[in-house]
Design a protein that fits this description.
The complex is a heterotrimer of chains A (about 300), B (about 400) and C (about 300). With about 300 residues, chain A is an all-alpha fold. Chain A has one domain (about 5-305): Orthogonal Bundle (ABC transporter involved in vitamin B12 uptake, BtuC). Chain A has helices at about 5-20, 30-50, 60-75, 80-100, 105-125, 155-175, 180-190, 190-195, 200-225, 235-250, 255-270, 280-295, 295-305, and strands at about 145, 150. In chain A, a hairpin with a 3-residue loop joins strand 1 and strand 2 (about 150). In chain A, helix 2 runs antiparallel to helix 9 (about 200-225). Chain B is an alpha/beta fold. Chain B has two domains: about 5-150 and about 285-355, Response regulator (Rossmann fold); about 150-275 and about 360-390, Response regulator (Rossmann fold). In chain B, a hairpin with a 4-residue loop joins strand 11 and strand 12 (about 350-355). Chain B is globular and about 65 Å long. Chain B starts with a helix and ends in a 14-residue tail after the last helix. Residues about 1-30 of chain B have low confidence and may be disordered. Chain C has a domain at about 30-225. Chain C is built from eleven helices and four strands, in the order E-E-H-H-H-H-E-E-H-H-H-H-H-H-H. Chain C has helices spanning about 10-40, 45-65, 70-90, 100-120, 150-170, 170-180, 185-190, 195-215, 225-240, 245-265, 275-285, and strands at about 5, 5-10, 140, 145. In chain C, strand 1 (about 5) and strand 2 form a beta hairpin. The model of chain C has no long low-confidence stretch (mean pLDDT about 85). The chains are: A mainly alpha (about 300), B alpha/beta (about 400), C mainly alpha (about 300). The interface of A and B includes residues 28, 138, 271 and 273 of A.
Chain lengths: ~300, ~400, ~300
């Protein structure tokens, strides 16, 4: 099912059990943040890991999803599922426009054009009245799921976040292992050959880009409901950098890597907060260590040791 | 009881273990009061609050004679991320038994933490943020905004400057919520005092380092006063460049701390007017406070945020003593009400807290000394004018705080 | 008084001139980035941090050793250049065969460490650095009041750009360097120590950043974030000019300074984003940037 190999299926089951059991051991708000970022990183990994496109402005879709979902929930009184859906659509639409522009370029130029578009999205969010500028949208209500179940308790919210995360995770996996995903990989390996085989590679790349952006919007929208805030931090280029870090930490092009990376990065941010003044220095050292010594990421290294694909 | 520096570090380290859901109410059972201090310790606002604020709170705790309960202080760096601030705040309240969260500069983070405190009926003493929203649209019965806000800065610096003859203004404004609010509040104050505003320019925030273009636009407007509605490094840069370009206008820095003046040096900073609600060299009491504070924070003298953290922690502990630990822990709004009912009297601040949570302390308009006038280290300010707390803050009749109406 | 587009002419001339001055900084900083990218294929995200380091070294020389501005203008780039040698040997040299991504992430990590340490040491509000006495004061140009120091900045930066361009494009050292980037084994076969040459190129690139840092110290706040504010813009300049093109980054640096300066008059809020708008347009029309060769 879903194209899992045997080790992957086992790993997936372990992950599901962990996701289900974790809130009884660890603090749920922290876990929800991990899951939101994990979903964001999975979306990003779809591009970098399977199409070979490095998007350097992915915070735009994540943050825009957050703003739209937050605004819909707060100002229009949308129920949470509709608010999150609105955030997803916003991410997808923005991705359609930006992607249409960006996929005309390759390699480092693709990265640069997405960076520039990301900066423009940031500028828009800073200026647009509905985002509340620097203060952001504050006190967004979690509301009632389908108008029935209150999400006020952290465990109820956690259940929703967990389901959305697993949905997104499986979707990415399904896309990668579909015939469509095979063509994406062919493009990554050798784009001219894919073109000469008769594939309209731009359309495939754009489709992958839109899926990734919509999932990023889903993650961002969910996060804004979890915390009740949507602010500029989520559209800032530092967030674009962070998602690259997460994916790299966990392992580029592995299915479980982004999840592990998001867990490590969020835990780091959380615990380093108590290290006070040393936060940036420690983060920098970890970056350097990753690039010099662990380029395959945590999951990549484990998979190599066990000689399996994860 | 006293807490050594080492045990403070130990506490912080203990707080850094995995966020287990199980060990929540341990602190509550032993009758320990736990203060959580959340601010910027590694970013641009590090020097205005940062570890010096932690030292100030620790000093208040150390000096507070034992009243039969223990006090612990933990701190964290919110890295100016509202989501991290909100998450740490809820984790501290829900899991770690923290009773009050203090400081929290950067308005977006301050507002997020206030929201978390409000939802849980926990106490939040905001010292570092400037946004007047904290006692208006985003007010809460358990939130107190202690020593300054944008309205008071505008009133003191804006109103007094007009009286002193600076009646036409041009603004250079950081293009974000804080800058815009500062500009609109000051504009209202300038107009009300009979002055006029000839124009303004908003520059992109953050990321602007060169202000010469805006300075020339200001100069060519013909206004007498240049209002700088920005903060931190932006203010430092704009003042430095105003001097370089020979800007002859009187410069009113709408938010500036003594730590910024120190960074500029008196050569460049002389003649600036600014508002703080505390100056270390004000009287014997403030000097005595400073003498004890400086060994704990060797790189800088206290600004109003450091002194405000000290005073707020002390006032909080007095209120806890007054009502007893169990009652203080039970309800954030109850302890806030008790703090509002008691006058604030300590070495740094004398005044009260209004029912909307607004700290009511005098605002001082200072002018930065010439290098020749400065006799000692950190001898930087001449007092120009004092605005009483009642006059400095937005009257209750104009407040948009929801719970005042009930 | 005659008007340009509804604004008084003196104001517009003033803004154009200020744009050129900012452009001088962009050109100098992007020049170093372009040299490093062109020769080493590394996107040096630590450039802003090294620019900041240059300013702090100048401050340290003045405050602890009493060494003045003019000497610092030479010493600070040497100190930071030497530091660059260490960075290149210890970290960057391990990445030449890998994707751009890794070089970018590594140097980003280096920037975090350098800036974090500087903040712990010097605080975040910065330190004062005076304008050297003979460059104080200003000249009245009729349409504006021009600080002499800013004039010096443009002059110094233009000279430095010219020297760098001449060295790389017109001397035999430059020719060898360019040959080494095309085909390192071949150049090595001629008995030239290519790794050392690459190390020195990196040192040269960061020395340029430090030089810009010393130039900036008297006019910008010398604080640990000063480089981070510049780096993204400078990055954009390099991309627009064509990555690795020396001439491209010089011309684009000055050009974008002017465009930004004009935006500050017409739509000040947009003056930071205008560069990215230009960048998107340029990349869509000319994939390799204005002066780049092939995509």
């Amino acid at each position: 099912m879903f194209g899992f190999s045997r080790p992957q299926a086992i790993a997936f089951l372990v992950m599901v059990v962990l996701v289900a059991g974790a809130p009884f051991v660890l603090y749920p708000v922290f876990l929800m943040k991990v899951l939101c970022f994990a979903l964001f990183a999975c979306a990003f990994n779809l591009l970098i890991g399977y199409v070979g496109l490095l998007s350097f402005g992915h915070a735009a879709y994540f943050g825009m999803g957050g703003y739209v979902a937050g605004y819909a929930a707060k100002a229009w009184g949308f129920t949470p599922e509709l608010a999150i859906l609105a955030g997803t659509i916003a991410g997808g639409l923005l991705g359609t426009v930006f992607g249409w522009l960006a996929i005309r370029r390759q390699g480092i130029y693709f990265a640069m054009i997405t960076l520039a578009l990301g900066q423009m999205a940031y500028f828009f969010c800073l200026q647009a009245p509905f985002t509340g500028g620097e203060d952001g949208i504050q006190q967004i209500p979690r509301g009632k799921l389908f108008g029935l179940f209150s999400l006020q308790s952290d465990l109820a919210m956690y259940a929703v976040v967990a389901v959305l995360f697993l949905f997104g995770f499986l979707l990415v996996h399904r896309v990668v292992h579909s015939p469509f995903g095979q063509i994406l990989k062919a493009i990554r390996e050798n784009e001219p050959r894919a073109t000469s085989l008769g594939y309209r590679t731009d359309s495939y790349k754009l489709a992958a880009f839109i899926i990734s952006c919509a999932l990023a919007g889903l993650a961002g929208g969910t996060k804004s409901l979890v915390f009740g805030i949507a602010t500029l931090t989520d559209v800032h280029n530092a967030m674009s950098g962070e998602v690259v870090l997460m994916t790299l930490l966990g392992g580029l092009g592995t299915i479980f890597g982004p999840v592990m990376g998001a867990l490590i990065a969020t835990a780091m941010e959380n615990y380093l907060a108590q290290a006070g003044a040393w936060v940036t220095v420690i983060q920098g050292v970890i970056f350097i260590a990753c690039v010099i010594a662990f380029r395959k990421g945590v999951i990549g290294v484990i998979a190599d040791k066990l000689k399996i694909h994860l | 009881m006293t807490l050594s520096r080492r045990s403070l570090i130990g506490t912080a380290a203990a707080g850094a273990t995995l966020p287990l859901a199980g060990h929540s109410a341990r602190a509550q059972a032993t009758g320990t009061i736990k203060i959580g201090l959340l601010n910027d310790q590694s970013g641009p606002y590090r020097d205005t609050g940062g570890t010096s604020s932690v030292a100030a709170v620790q000093m208040a705790v150390d000096e507070f004679a034992s009243k039969g309960f223990k006090v612990e202080v933990i701190s964290a760096d919110h890295q100016n991320k509202p989501d991290l601030g909100a998450q740490l705040a809820s984790q501290w309240f829900d899991r770690d038994g923290v009773d009050v969260i203090m400081d929290v500069p950067t308005s977006s983070v301050g507002l997020a933490v206030a929201g978390v405190a409000k939802a849980r009926n926990k106490l939040h003493l905001n010292i570092g943020s400037a946004s007047a929203e904290l006692t208006n649209g985003a007010c809460a019965p358990s939130v107190i905004h202690y020593i300054y806000d944008t309205y008071m800065l505008a009133k003191s610096t804006g109103g007094a400057t007009v009286k002193a003859g600076g009646d036409s203004w041009y603004f250079i404004t950081a293009d974000y919520a804080f800058g815009k609010q500062l500009q609109s509040d000051t504009t209202a104050m300038v107009l009300a005092s009979g002055g006029k505003v000839t124009g303004s320019v908003a520059y992109p925030f953050p990321g602007t380092t060169d202000y010469s273009s805006f300075l020339l636009q200001a100069q060519s407007s013909g206004a007498k006063v240049l209002g700088l509605a920005n903060a931190g490094g932006d203010t430092v840069n704009s003042v430095k460049q105003a001097k370089e370009f020979g800007i002859t206008m009187r410069i009113a820095t709408m938010l500036m701390f003594i730590t910024d003046v120190h960074a500029l040096g008196l050569d460049v900073a002389q003649g600036l007017t600014l508002t703080e609600s505390f100056y270390w060299d004000m009287n014997d009491k403030t000097r005595a406070f400073t003498k004890r504070f400086v060994p704990r924070s060797p790189n800088n003298y206290p600004n109003m945020i450091h002194a405000g953290n000290y005073s707020a922690a002390l006032h909080f502990l007095k209120a806890v003593t007054d009502m007893g630990v169990p009652a203080a822990k039970a309800s954030g709004s109850a302890i806030a009400d008790r703090m509002k009912a008691m006058p604030v009297v300590d070495e740094c601040f004398q005044g009260s807290i209004r029912k909307d949570g607004r700290g009511m302390f005098p605002a001082y308009l200072f002018q930065v000394k010439k290098p020749s006038e400065s006799k000692a280290k950190w001898d930087y300010y001449n007092l120009l004018q004092t605005t009483s707390g009642e006059d400095a803050y937005k009257p209750l009749s104009q407040s948009t705080c929801y719970f005042l109406k009930s | 008084m005659f008007m340009i587009l509804g604004y008084p002419a003196p104001l517009m001339f003033g803004q154009l001139l200020l744009g050129l001055i900012n452009g001088a900084f962009y050109a100098l900083l992007s020049l170093g980035l372009a040299v490093i990218f062109g020769m080493l294929n590394i996107v040096n995200f630590a450039h802003g941090a090294l620019f900041m380091l240059g300013a702090f070294v100048a401050w340290g020389l003045l405050n602890f050793l009493g060494i003045n501005y003019w000497a610092a203008l030479i010493l600070a780039p040497l100190v930071v250049g030497a530091f660059g040698v260490v960075l290149e040997k210890a970290f960057i040299s391990r990445l030449y065969k890998l994707d751009h991504l890794y070089g970018l992430l590594l140097t980003f990590g280096l920037a975090l460490v350098i800036e974090g340490l500087a903040r712990n040491e010097f605080g975040s509000s910065g330190v004062p650095y005076p304008i050297p006495s003979i460059l104080q004061g200003a000249a009245n140009l009729g349409f504006m009041f021009m600080p002499i120091y800013r004039g010096w900045v443009v002059l110094a930066s233009a000279i430095m750009c010219l020297i760098t361009w001449l060295v790389i494009e017109k001397t035999s050292i430059g020719a060898t360097l360019r040959a080494a980037t095309e085909n390192a084994p071949l150049v090595q076969a001629f008995g030239i120590n290519v790794p050392r040459m690459i190390t020195l190129t990196y040192a040269g690139g960061v020395a340029l950043a430090a030089f810009a840092g010393v130039l900036a110290a008297p006019i910008y706040s010398v604080n640990p974030n000063m480089g981070a504010n510049f780096i993204i813009t400078v990055f954009a300049v390099v991309v627009i000019g064509g990555m690795g093109s020396i001439l491209g980054s010089i011309v684009t640096g000055f050009g974008l300074g002017v465009i930004e300066g004009l935006t500050k008059v017409f739509y000040p809020q947009g003056s930071s984003v205008v560069i990215f708008v230009v960048m998107v347009i340029v990349l869509l029309v000319r994939p390799a940037g204005l002066f780049g060769k092939g995509a």
